[in-house]
Amino acid sequence: MKPFYLILGVLFIVASGIAILSPLNKNETLAGASLSISTFLFGVFIAFSISDRHNRINGIRENDSNERSGLEYLYAMLEIFGKKAQNKIKTKIDAYLVATMDYTIWDYSKTEKQFKDLVKTVISLELKSKAHVEAYNSFAGIIKDLWTSRKQTISLIEDRLSKTEWLVFFVLSGIMVFSLLLIGTTILQGIVIVILTTFTIILLLILLYRLDNLTWKEEARIFEPYQQTFESVGLMRYYPESLIHERRIKKNRGKTYRLGIFPSPYPDMNGKKVKIVKV
User: Fold this and answer.
1) What sign has the CA pseudo-torsion 82, 84, 85, 90?
2) Where does the chain have alpha helices with state H?
3) In the prediction, which pLDDT does 60 show?
């Protein structure tokens, strides 16, 4: 993350410095031609990329929604088997959701162990009545949907913009800014246009970057829905301490929740402790 923002910061400082302190000699013919071509290519490329990244996030969100609703439905249906069986499955659901929160989204596949443990517990339920058999038969479809959603989510998470694509964005951005500098910045209006245009380009690249690394509206799209699932199955909210310390969570205010504390650097989960936090 830091190198990306560093590059953008350098681009903005250099462009602003040249515009204000050392204006380039005008070359309106070259500037006009290069600006037209680079602006067109940049506009088409970034519009397509932002749309593609939005669709990716929406796909992940849809799969997550299907998975969470499946878990909630599974828990509700287990009432037929009695409280003991329902609480047993609730413990497995809790372990799976907690693991999902503990691992970063890039390591979502590492929750496979907890998911398989949940599935194994469900399919090992003891059937004592016709109602149990009917409910059990419906679990097969739920588990299949959960598995499909997980696999699709993992595939979408791994679909990142390549280094070549980012290189194209940076090259086109540089050409646009350089072309603006060639048009001339000897008057205040020119300086303002160069600075604002460069700033806008940087904002677009930051938006694309955050969409690509799945941090765009991450609390509303990812973290909060999982917390609501905890509550839907009668569990207390859970957050790993990194999310709180990095201030990536705001909707924990006024909530009592569990906090996961890790003595070792991620992804080492050894020695993990959980404490109750009352806000």
Assistant:
1) positive
2) 2-21, 28-77, 83-102, 112-123, 130-157, 163-183, 188-212, 218, 224-232, 241-245
3) 95
Contact of 78 with 234, CB cutoff 8 Å: no
Q: What is the pLDDT of residue 177?
A: 82
Residue 277 Rama label (left phi>0; alpha psi -120 to 50; beta): beta
Contact 240, 262 (CB under 8 A): yes
Read off the pLDDT of each residue in 188-206 and give the average, rounded to a whole number: 84
Query: For residue 259, which of 238, 231, 235, 243 has the smallest C-alpha distance?
Result: 238
Residue 202 in contact with residue 8, Cβ under 8 Å?
yes
Helix, strand or coil, per DSSP, at residue 66: helix
Q: Look at the block and give the residue holding tokens 């500098």.
A: 181
Name the DSSP class of 259. E
pLDDT digits (tens, 9 = 90+) for 121-166: 999 998 989 889 998 898 989 999 999 999 999 999 999 999 999 9
Peptide bond into 240 cis (omega under 30): no
Q: Hey, what are 212's tokens?
A: 């690509």
